[in-house]
Design goal:
Length: 161
């Protein structure tokens, strides 16, 4: 028999992960207001559908998927698909890049589709494993790897042009 989270446990998990969830939302919309709107909507949807979470140990993955879907919904509504990552979520390697290289990286990320950006964000900015990404996106792990390597190739081409 599966164990479900209580309302109190849901609230505690949300509190414990609020910074991580906010960063995830912010990566899509690049502003505090919209990121908070996404988190609010995702929290509501998560709370309403709490009974559908069959395994509490996958709470982070489950909520990440809800946040990503809410971000997509907001972006579709606003027709905003440009992408700039906030400085505090950039990988440490980014410090080694010159200003020109950073601008090239941001421009390259702007060329990606939202689903491609999701893979990059989850892998390199959220530091998720291939398995965690696969669980979050409900894709086979091999598909995640293949798509990610294809996207990296696409980014390398865009940066080297």
């Amino acid at each position: 028999m599966s164990q479900h989270l209580s309302k109190k446990q849901f609230a505690q998990h949300m509190e414990n992960n609020k910074a991580k969830f906010y960063r995830l939302a912010f990566c899509y919309v690049k502003n505090e207001h919209d990121a908070l709107e996404i988190i609010s909507e995702a929290t509501y949807k998560g709370f309403i559908n709490l009974g559908k979470l069959e395994n509490p140990e996958f709470f982070d993955t489950w909520m990440s998927r809800i946040i990503i879907n809410c971000a997509y919904d907001l972006l579709k509504k606003q027709k905003k698909y440009e992408f700039i990552v906030p400085d505090d979520t950039l990988p440490a390697r980014e410090e080694d890049l010159s200003v020109d290289d950073r601008l090239d990286l941001y421009q390259a990320l702007n060329t990606l589709q939202p689903d491609e950006r999701t893979l990059i964000i989850l892998k390199y900015f959220e530091d998720r494993s291939f398995r965690e990404i696969a669980e979050t996106l409900k894709l086979p792990e091999s598909t995640v790897k293949t798509r990610l390597y294809r996207i990296i190739g696409k980014l390398k081409s865009a940066v080297s042009v």
